[in-house]
């Protein structure tokens, strides 16, 4: 049930890991998304129904393991079972004829031999109180491994629960040259665990010095595929005298006290300057554009609330621009060999004066008028690096100053990670032991003209006959040799 309940966490974007994906899902599915959100499908792992299954599994495991542990502990301290009266009913059975001299020593010899093989043994007397049989058991390690496996599962659940409660995950988009500080105000989005408090954030700063991408230029069928991503950063932890430089790659996070920084995304951030008709700067800076294709055709939104008339821009960036037969633009290669920026312009209320948070990567045009691009009757704006063009409707000018890269960083902390690993390894060792170690009972009993051997296994054990054959050869090699010749 827990595995099935986890499936929606892979199907739908989760707020804890992909808040932008959740926002995009709401934008693309405005009617379905609120319904899914009502049943917590965007917060699967913290939902009430997932937690209920989790707690029920936890309780059922404890209810299963504790009684079995008590029974197993009692079995370890108890003597092997009494020798059955009729050994011939056992799955593996041998009757060996032996001389009186061999018969007299077979009990002590078999007890010593079985003990060397790791059996727990007990010599049991007959009617005249003389040794008449040996009862031997081995394979209790199988049940021990089974219990270790289930106890480790409980440990994993505890570690995941407390680790998740004390953990946090935050996301930050950094443009080359920018820095962020590890506090709540420094994150673009932040998802704390149930028991998280702000004082658990270790104060440090991280600056993105440079971002590099290697694209494939050799393989003709793979041209433009990224081969490596490298984020060159400088970090400074409060209390340390000197900053440290590092390189963050995919699956090679930067480890800082109480945090790990993972590289989760990247793209281009065109540098723009927008001026009003009087030449005053109303917007300036590098704006991250979200990649829309493998060739890094990217979408960006610029909102200008401080102009005399509020307006917004929906822009597309093409690293290596090309025009299709239909007249549409595309990018042929992900590196910026011939970059071009196109813009559609909208005027009207941006909807940000009310104080409600808005998605910085989306522009709500429902109450705005398009004045450039689309069906407005005015061609959209096109800019190459260094160019300045006029905005329509006396809105001013926009300049494409330059191009930078950005990196999306995920800053996360989970104190239960190490314990999850430890208990997972214990669970693997336990289940391996329980599968490989056979649980077996062996008896050696005196008979009128020799002795009997019998064996019983818990579960399938195709080696029982071989075990008895080897034991018989050790106890009476000559007679076994004669029988095999016959």
What ranges have pLDDT less than 50 throughout 5 or more consecutive residues? Answer: 478-486
Question: What multimeric state do the chains show?
Answer: single chain
Annotation, overall tally of beta strands:
24
Rg, Å, rounded: 37 Å
- State the separation between the terminal residues, measured CA to CA: 60 Å
**Global structural class:** alpha+beta
| Anisotropy-based shape | elongated
Query: Mean of the pLDDT scores?
Result: 88
Describe this structure in words.
The protein contains 9 helices and 24 strands. 27% of the residues are buried. It is α+β, with helices and mostly antiparallel strands. It is 29% helix and 35% strand. Among the domains are: 107 residues, 2-Layer Sandwich (TATA-Binding Protein), CATH 3.30.310; 139 residues, no CATH class. The strands form 5 sheets. Strands 4, 6, 10, 11, 12, 21 and 22 form a 7-stranded antiparallel beta sheet that branches. Strands 13, 14, 15, 18, 19 and 20 form a 6-stranded antiparallel beta sheet that branches.
């Amino acid at each position: 049930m827990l595995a099935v309940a986890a499936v929606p966490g892979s199907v739908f974007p989760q707020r804890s890991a992909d808040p932008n994906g959740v926002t995009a899902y709401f934008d693309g599915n405005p009617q379905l998304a609120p319904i899914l959100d009502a049943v917590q499908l965007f917060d699967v792992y913290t939902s009430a129904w997932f937690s209920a299954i989790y707690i029920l599994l936890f309780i059922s495991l404890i209810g299963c393991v504790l009684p079995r542990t008590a029974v197993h502990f009692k079995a370890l301290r108890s003597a092997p079972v009494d020798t059955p009266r009729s050994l011939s009913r056992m799955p593996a059975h041998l009757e060996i004829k032996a001389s009186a001299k061999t018969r007299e020593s077979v009990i002590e010899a078999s007890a010593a031999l079985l003990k060397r093989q790791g059996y727990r043994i007990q010599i049991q007397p007959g009617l005249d109180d003389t040794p008449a049989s040996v009862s031997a058991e081995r394979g209790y390690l199988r049940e021990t491994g089974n219990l270790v496996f289930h106890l480790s599962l409980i440990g994993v659940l505890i570690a995941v629960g407390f680790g998740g409660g004390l953990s946090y995950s935050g996301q930050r988009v950094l443009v080359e040259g920018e820095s962020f500080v590890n506090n709540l105000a420094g994150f673009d989005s932040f998802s704390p665990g149930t028991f998280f408090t702000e004082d658990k954030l270790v104060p440090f700063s991280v600056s993105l010095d440079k971002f590099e991408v290697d694209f494939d230029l050799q393989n003709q069928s793979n041209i433009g595929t990224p081969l490596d991503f490298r984020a060159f950063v400088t970090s400074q932890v409060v209390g340390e005298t000197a900053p440290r430089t590092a390189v963050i790659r995919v699956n090679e996070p930067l480890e800082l006290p109480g945090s790990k920084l993972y590289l989760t995304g990247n793209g281009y951030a065109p540098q723009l300057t927008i001026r009003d008709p009087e030449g005053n700067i109303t917007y300036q800076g590098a704006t991250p554009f979200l990649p829309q294709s493998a060739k890094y055709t990217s979408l960006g939104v610029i909102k200008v609330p401080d102009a005399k008339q509020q307006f917004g821009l929906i822009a597309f960036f093409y690293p290596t621009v090309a025009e299709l037969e239909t007249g549409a633009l595309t990018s042929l290669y992900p590196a910026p060999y011939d970059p071009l920026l196109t813009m559609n312009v909208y005027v009207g209320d941006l909807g940000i004066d009310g104080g409600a948070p808005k998605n910085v990567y989306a522009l709500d045009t429902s109450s705005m008028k398009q004045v450039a691009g689309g069906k407005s009757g005015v061609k959209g704006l096109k800019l190459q690096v260094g160019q300045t063009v006029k905005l329509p409707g006396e809105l001013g000018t926009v300049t494409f100053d330059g191009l930078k890269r950005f990196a999306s960083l995920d800053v996360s902390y989970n104190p239960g990670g190490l314990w999850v690993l430890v208990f997972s390894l214990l669970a693997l060792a336990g289940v391996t032991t329980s599968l490989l170690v056979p649980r077996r009972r062996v008896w050696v009993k005196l008979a009128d003209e020799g002795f009997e051997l019998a064996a019983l296994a818990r579960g399938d054990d195709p080696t029982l006959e071989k075990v008895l054959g080897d034991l018989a050869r050790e106890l009476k090699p000559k007679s076994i040799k004669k029988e095999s010749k016959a």
